[in-house]
Design brief:
There is one protein chain. The chain is globular and about 40 Å long. Helix content is 0%, strand content 53%. It has 117 residues and is mainly β. A hairpin with a 4-residue loop joins strand 7 and strand 8. Strands 2, 4, 5, 6, 9, 10 and 11 form a 7-stranded mixed β-sheet that branches. It has no helices and 11 strands.
Length: 117
């Protein structure tokens, strides 16, 4: 069982930056592929970024060059550095963990990011 707690959301002006954190419980964090997703009002949840246990990353095209996902396996934390934020980045951001051996997934409760124009 893994519990995920996101933090770092808030209100920021367009062009600003935020760093989201996702702290995971448990002693086997390195077994999990981690990802960030977001859901804007009235829209489906969408993939934003992911990082493998070894550090390989991938991003949705709309955030490439602006967002960076990273992980600290010793600290059981994954981060999402968001720069050059746009109003269309406004959403609730969720952290997801997927066990690479069982494919069982866990989700955090989400953190609100609001970008004003």
């Amino acid at each position: 069982q893994v519990q995920l707690v996101e933090s770092g959301g808030g209100l920021v002006q367009a062009g600003g930056s935020l760093r989201l954190s996702c702290a995971a419980s448990g002693r086997t964090f390195s077994r999990y592929a981690m990802g960030w997703f977001r859901q804007a009002p009235g829209k489906e949840r969408e993939f934003v970024a992911a990082i493998s246990w070894s550090g390989s990353t991938n991003y949705v095209d709309s955030v490439k060059g602006r967002f960076t996902i990273s992980r600290d396996n010793a600290g059981n934390t994954v981060y999402l550095q968001m720069n050059l934020l746009k109003p269309e980045d406004t959403a609730v951001y969720y952290c997801k963990a997927r066990n690479v051996y069982t494919n069982i997934e866990y989700w955090g409760q989400g953190t609100q990011v609001t970008v004003s124009s």
